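Hey all, quick one. A colleague (J.T.) asked me to put the DQA job into the tracker so the inputs and the structure tokens live in one place instead of scattered across chat threads. No bug as far as I know, just bookkeeping. Sequence used:
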Amino acid sequence: NLILVLNGPNLNLLGSREPEIYGHDTLDSIAMMLEDQAAALGLEIDLRQSNHEGHLVDWLHEAGSRQCLAVILNAGALTHSSIALHDAIKAIPVPVIEVHLSNPHARERFRHRSFISAVARGTISGFGARSYALALDAAAQLRQ
Ligand code: DQA
């Protein structure tokens, strides 16, 4: 019943980073919110962040080998560039839920392309920190 919540580049700066776009919640406060929600759902979460693409690839592989229930992935800007993350998601049997705090489609053109979406189970974006809560709810529904 383990769900990895993986966060990519610059998301360690949440709270102070462009708060008009990303809100005032920090990654720590999002982690605390998700811990409570997961406990209520009978799930376990492990939230991680890295600024390095390879760490995210390794963690996706780990989710596969540990047969996690799901991965919730905010790949940050790697969403728009990373074929390595695309391939890693394809390589594992675990459903990946793509999340974004902002709605990339309402922003610059270079954010309109996602290498994650085509291989994700689904995408939730535009609801700030709530995007993660909605994703965790969706992940809970994947239990049969
Ligand atoms: C983001 C959107 C990306 O375009 C951006 O590069 C991020 C954050 C989001 O959560 O809204 O770093 O993934």
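Adding what we noticed when we looked at it: The helical segments are 19-22, 27-41, 53-65, 83-91, 130-141. The two ends are 11 Å apart (CA to CA).
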